[in-house]
Every structure is written in structure tokens, then in C-alpha cells.
Amino acid sequence: MDVIGLHGRCVAEFVARVAAVPAEQWDVPTPCSDWNARELVNHVVGEDRWTVPLLEGATVADVGSEFDGDLLGHDPAASTRRAADEAVAMVAEVLPAGGRVHLSYGDEDMAEYVHQLAADHLIHAWDLAAATGGETALDAELVAAVAEWFGEREALYRSAGVIGPRVEGAFDEPRATLLAAFGRDPGWTPST
Questions:
Q1: What is the CA radius of gyration of the chain?
Q2: In this predicted structure, what is the pLDDT of residue 83?
Q3: What backbone phi and psi angles, to 5 degrees, belong to 35?
Q4: What are the C-alpha distances in Å from 93 to residues 12, 55, 72, 97?
Q5: Can you tell me the distance from the alpha carbon of 155 to that of 99, in angstroms, rounded to the nearest whole number?
Q6: Spatial CB neighbours of 75, under 8 Å, sequence gap ≥ 6
Q7: Do the beta carbons of residue 160 and residue 144 sit within 8 Å?
Q8: Which residue, among 149, 141, 138, 147, has the nearest Cα to 180 in the 3D structure?
Q9: For 89-124, how does the pLDDT look when each residue is reduced to its tens digit (9 = 90+)?
Q10: Which residues pair with 108 in a beta bridge?
Q11: How far apart are CA 112 and CA 147, in angstroms?
């Protein structure tokens, strides 16, 4: 699967999970222990908002604090959809020409950055669904594509502190194996 398609489909998975969050569940805990549901969604919307200027060639310093704080407003689903649509359109427009993007850790290949975004959207789609009682199944094709990309990067991500320890266990399906690689307990529930 090409990275543009992967990104668009992973973003769509996340947007669908946000649209399904009941109004009373925005403050529930998530598998990301530092964030409740609203904070997790705000994080991903922030990534989508950063995508446009970064792919246009801006640096982190250029953008500064523009996307700090609450990006969701009174309608988290609408804010998520708007940011997602802008990010997906920018990826489709800019990525075919290739190039580099300026990230906090240095310059990176655009395709690698977009893979990172795709993976984050897919994993956080599961996080949000698990937290809010939503649909935790993930598209098998997306799971396979993200797992293939992430396989070579897992140790690097872990050593950089970007993900938690791998959850050990004998997992019987690819989705659970991918979640465990990203430091998620595939059996997580809000009470755990």
C-alpha cells in the first residue's frame, strides 16, 4: 500500500472513532495514562494541524506555539474532521514530489514522517475506542502495513522513549501483536 493511501485510511479510522465518542465520555481515561479521551484527541488534532506547515517547509520554530492549547473547541468531532481533511489533502498534494520535513529531532524524509503520522492515527484510534467503548477492531490491511513499517523502527522508538515497553504475551492476531509492540495491552479496559 502506498503511504498516501495508508495515511488517508489511518486518519479516516481515527476520525470515525472520534465521531462515535459519546458526549459524556470526553474525560474518561485512555491507555495513554497521561491523557484522557479529549486530551488524546487534541494531541492527534495537533499532529494534523502541524502537518500542513511542516509539509510546506516550515520549521518547528517557524510554527512556534500556534497549535498549543485546546484545538477542539466546543465540537471535537468537527474540529477533528477539519484538521484531518486539511492534513490528508496536504499529504496527497505534496508527498508525490518527495523531499524533507523539519521535525523537532532534525530533518526527516517526508514519506517517513507520513508513515509516523499514519501509525499514530491508527494506534490512537484503538486507544480512543478502547477508552470510550467504541469499535476496537482495526482494518487488517492497515494493521499489516503499519506493522511492516514499524518492525524496523520499534527498538529505535523504544530507546527514544516515544513508546512504552513491549507488552509480552502470546497474541493470536496481528492487531494485538501490533498494539503490544506499541506498548499497549490489547486487553486494556478503562478499569485496568
A1: 16
A2: 98
A3: -130, 140
A4: 17, 10, 25, 8
A5: 25
A6: none
A7: no
A8: 147
A9: 999 999 999 999 998 888 999 999 999 999 999 999
A10: 101
A11: 14
The Cα–Cα gap between 114 and 37 comes to 23
Number of domains in the chain: 1
Instruction: Identify residue 123 by its one-letter amino acid code.
Output: I
Cα dihedral 149, 151, 152, 155, rounded to 10, equals 130
- pTM equals 0.95
Instruction: Identify whether 97 is part of a domain.
Output: yes
pLDDT digits (tens, 9 = 90+) for 72-92: 999 999 999 999 999 999 999
> The domain spanning residue 98 has which CATH number?
1.20.120.450
**Which residues span the domain enclosing 55?**
3-138
Measure Cα distances from 21 to 15, 65, 77, 127, 134 in Å.
10, 28, 9, 12, 7
For 14-72, the pLDDT digits (tens) are 999 999 999 999 999 999 988 999 999 999 999 999 999 999 999 888 988 889 999 99
Q: With beta carbons less than 8 A apart as the criterion, state whether 150 and 123 touch.
A: no
| Residue in the structure block whose three cell numbers are 484545538 | 71
Residue 31 lies in a domain: yes
In residues, how long is the chain?
Answer: 192
